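Read as chain and fold; for instance:
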Amino acid sequence: ELDLFMRSVSSFWVISAATAARTNRRQALLAVIPNKATFAFQSSLSKSPQIHRTTVSPSGITVVQSMMNQFTNPPLPTIKKSAPPLPPPPRSCDTFVYVSADKGAKGPSATLFGKNSDRPSEEAHEVVYIPPSTQHPPGSIVCCTHGIEIPQVSSTLGVILSRPAWLWGCEMGANEHGVVGGNEAVSTLLSSELDTDVAAGGLLGMDLLRLALERGHTAREAMEVCIDLLETYGQGGRCSEDPNDNWTYENGFLFADASEAFVLETAGRCHWASERVAPGTYRNISNGISIRAESMESCSSKIRQICRDRGWWDDRTPFDWKACVGYGVGATLASDYRLEIRGREKAGADHLRKMSDQLSCGDMHSDDAPVWVRYV
């Protein structure tokens, strides 16, 4: 697996992703530094681990390719004949955030963000820097994945992106204002609304993420950009490089900055719900719908009526996004075991809780960056 090197960046740290020899995971470390970006990768797949490092100036685009050959044909682990067979590797995207605490309050002194990705192992990935631009003329068009065209804004922010090389968007990234975001696949009862036909014009979740990072100066603004584009153009489209693969999915997002974070989950072509993560608190998502009635900040205007019409919600109990669009049990949610946190989502939540406990008992300190990163 990759050992990740972390740089403390004023009051903001960003960790995003890596590849292990036995899994389909790809990860890359992103550290945002004023006027430049530094990437460091240390691979332990060989007997002589190497660090691949590149510094990118704002004047151009650099693709970190030196890491790719390291993982093209990684050496297989030596297994004794008497050893039991290895269990199948876990497969899911897992995204974490621990928001920096207000001065004097419990929590880290900087926002901590981490994400891994379970894209196909044979899919080439790259880390790129896209410089800011203030020169998009009126009427400009931005061409996204599958040739989907939308109007360009007058100016875009500089971004560092980790992405599959074949598409326009990204799985994770950060912008020059310290906003970071990650995208995950989710599935709801409204997934039949999605279409893999390019003519349908839906944006990939990874395109939505890049657009949000290029246009959002804060985590909230990035989320609002994502919502506006989702409602205007919808989501959908083929999520695989293979033109014969009809794989598509709905999307979950986590946006964060130095003061707050937001979970944004989508359903069908254009429906959504959001949750704010306050200073000094933490949150994680793992390829599933997770926003509950007590934590939901807002949702799309028509989703309540849709759930009511389909019998997923009785209009008497509080509207529970996960219960309604995830399982259609909004009226009986108290007795449905499927709404319990489990699997990798539970493991992630437990991990963050242990970090919080370590802080409370004094084993970790709010400004101890290396210790917080090690726990991630």
Observations:
- Confidence is low (pLDDT under 50) at residues 1-81.
- The chain is about 20% helix and 20% strand.
- The helical segments are 66-72, 205-215, 219-233, 303-309, 321-327, 343-360, 369-375.
- Residues 343-360 form the longest helix (18 residues).
